[in-house]
Amino acid sequence: MQINRFTDLGLRVLISLQYLPESKLSTVEELAKQLNVSRNHLVKIVYFMAQSGWINSFKGRNGGIRLASTSYQLKLGDIVQALEQASSETSALVNCQQPPCSIKEFCYLPQAFSEAQQAFYHSLNRYTIKQLQAPATKQTVLKWLVQQE
After folding, report:
1. 142-148 contact pairs (CB < 8 A, 24+)
2. How does DSSP classify residue 93?
3. Cα 141 from chain centroid?
4. Distance CA 149, CA 138 (A)
5. Segment 62-90 mean pLDDT
6. SS in 3 state form for 15-40?
7. Across the chain, where does the E strand assignment appear?
8. Partner of 96 for a Cys bridge, out of 4, 5, 81, 101, CB 3.0 to 4.6 A?
9. Peptide bond into 99 cis (omega under 30)
10. What is the pTM of this model?
């Protein structure tokens, strides 16, 4: 299994935001710099996550984003599945259309891969975002916060 870039960056954003103090906000620009990625990549991801209720977004001069309080209990498999489905990069694990497959009427390969993909998500659901916290990551994020002040 391989996740796409949209999912990878979405997970990085969620993991980074969980270390912010409750009174602090981050911005897409700050996250892009911290994660060493393009701001444009993150805008769509952050918008999707705000629409999903995973992060809170505040507009205005002192606006920014932070992890929604309920997001700490989000299951990793559910997050990955939602991000994968939301991405424009998503494609089926087995594509019977390109090139057209002459055996697709009696082939169970797509079904087998679909079942494996569901098992992948199910396995990831043993973890929540909060369970992904690591002391070294927390120190890195806190260092970023100090540099911003």
Report:
1. 142/19, 144/30, 144/34, 145/20, 145/21, 145/24, 148/30
2. S
3. 17
4. 17
5. 91
6. HHHCCCCCCCCECHHHHHHHHCCCHH
7. 55-58, 64-67
8. 101
9. yes
10. 0.83
- Kind and range of the H or E run holding 89: none
Tokens representing 9? 């960056």
| Residue in the structure block whose two tokens are 């309080």 | 69
Classify residue 129 by burial, with Cβ atoms within 10 Å: 0-12, 13-18, 19+: buried
CB atoms within 10 A of CB 28: 19
Tokens 């270390």 -> residue: 19
Mean pLDDT rounded to a whole number for the chain: 87
Which amino acid would we find at residue 118? Q
Yes or no: say if 124 and 76 are a contact pair by the CB < 8 Å rule: yes
Q: What would the two tokens of residue 124 be? A: 């990831």
How many CB atoms neighbour CB 29 within 10 A?
12
Token pair of 57 as six digits: 């977004």
For the four alpha carbons of 73, 76, 77 and 78, in that order, the dihedral sign comes to positive
